[in-house]
Specification:
Blueprint lengths: L3 E6 L4 H12 L4 E8 L3 H10 L4 E4 L3 H7 L9 H4 L7 E4 L6 H10 L3 E4 L2 H18 L2 E4 L2 H10 L7 E8 L9 H5 L3 H4 L9 H9 L1 H14 L6 E5 L5 E7 L4 E5 L5 H9 L14 H4 L14 H11 L3 H17 L7 H12 L8 H16 L3
Parallel strand pairs: 1-2, 1-4, 2-3, 4-5, 5-6, 7-8
Antiparallel strand pairs: 7-9, 9-10
Helix pairs in contact: 5-6, 6-11, 6-15, 11-14, 15-16, 15-17
Bound molecules: magnesium ion.
């Protein structure tokens, strides 16, 4: 079998670190072409050596990294290098907006993009899809819920699918009262019950803003309107998501909550890895699985997502930008947690929506939303 050439964007983060583990565990499947990270240059250099990558790059600084590793290339070359013939799969796990231009380049060059950065589709869903169609690129979701839905949908006719059902762990504040939400400290918010993830996504998980972004992501990925996308609370994070067929049958995808399942499938698709090193689900230890409705009065995030997806254009991008700004304010101790929703709500309300005709439009809307949200408290 020909090895798949892989480039990892964001290799030192939580998803990227798990991708590196898979690349290490499957040298017979994958060859590491390039690694990109913003920070932690020492770790990046170490990963590059361990995986014998052709090149590594950091948008945080060329000089520091090149002192550590002879594989270092300028960050400005990355967009070209990931489009080279030796790259088959680009795993995008860069948090925030930095991944978008690189994903557009890879899709335009006909690459398979294993997409973990939900911001890419939230910010520029229509643009990403049209670029993929024009360049024959293909997006394989790596977000666990979307990987689950992707796997459940495989081989099925879309017109037989009534709804997509995303599961949400409910995050660290699932059972919090209004007063507890109001007074939640950063430390409390970061205590996630099941998933170990980066800080931003753990906070988004507590506000259910992560699920809101995922509803938008699912809408663009699978071409479903908001009324056909449901989210339910499932604290054990064992059922990663479901699809509901038109006859009422539900199909679910399950595994232990370990991101390597979705990352591995995103990279190996349409083939499946043999699971070496991955934990199997132990039914005797599983106990019971809980499901419940989301309390949308306490957690209004999904209202914003549905409005943004229904409207389209630049509004999902504005939701994402306002949320990032508000989360930063919360981390700095400038606002209380529920103000995140209010900042998102007010920023969206003030935004004049435009159609997505190019990257410039996206970046301009992102910038304006950040400026506006930055002034709110
Ligand atoms: Mg997810």
């Amino acid at each position: 079998m020909k090895k798949l050439g892989v480039a990892v964007l964001g290799s030192t983060g939580s998803i990227g670190g798990n991708a590196v583990k898979i690349l290490e565990a499957y040298p017979d499947w994958f060859r590491t072409v390039g690694l990109v990270a913003r920070s932690q240059t020492a770790l990046l250099a170490e990963q590059g050596a361990k995986l014998n990558a052709d090149w590594i790059a950091s948008d945080g600084g060329y000089d520091e990294l090149s002192r550590l590793s002879g594989r270092t290339v300028e960050f400005s070359r990355v967009a070209g290098l990931i489009c080279a013939p030796e790259v088959d799969v680009v795993l995008c796990a860069i948090v925030g907006t930095a991944g978008l231009p690189l994903v557009l380049a890879a899709l335009g060059a006909g690459k398979r993009v294993a997409l973990a950065s939900k911001e890419v589709l939230v910010m520029a869903g229509d643009l990403v899809k049209s670029r993929a169609a024009a360049g024959n690129g293909r997006i394989i979701p790596v977000d666990s819920e979307h990987s689950a839905i992707f796997q459940c949908l495989e081989g099925r006719r879309k017109n037989e699918v009534a709804r997509l059902v995303l599961t949400a762990s409910g995050g660290s504040l699932r059972n919090a009262t209004d007063a507890e939400l109001e007074n939640a400290t950063l430390e409390r918010v970061l205590r996630h019950p099941t998933w170990r993830m980066g800080r931003k996504v753990t906070i988004d998980s507590a506000t259910l803003m992560n699920k809101a972004l995922e509803v938008i992501e699912a809408g663009y990925l699978f071409d479903f309107p908001p009324e056909k996308i449901k989210a339910v609370i499932h604290p054990e994070s064992v059922v990663h998501s479901l699809i509901e067929m038109m006859d009422g049958t539900l199909l679910a995808q399950m595994s232990r909550p370990d991101m390597r399942f979705a990352i591995g499938y995103g990279m190996s698709w349409p083939d499946r890895l043999d699971g070496r090193g991955l934990p199997r689900l132990d039914f005797s230890a599983l106990g019971s699985l809980e499901f419940s409705e989301i309390d949308r009065r306490r957690f209004p995030s999904l209202d914003f997502a549905e409005a943004a997806l229904r409207c389209g254009g630049t509004l999902p991008c504005v939701l994402n930008a306002a949320n990032e700004v508000a989360v930063d304010k919360f981390v700095r101790g400038e606002i209380r947690l529920p103000r995140i929703w209010s900042i998102v709500d007010r920023t969206m309300a003030a935004h004049r929506v435009e159609p997505l005709d190019g990257l410039d439009t996206v970046l301009a809307a992102d910038r304006r939303a950040r400026e506006y949200a930055g002034k709110l408290n």
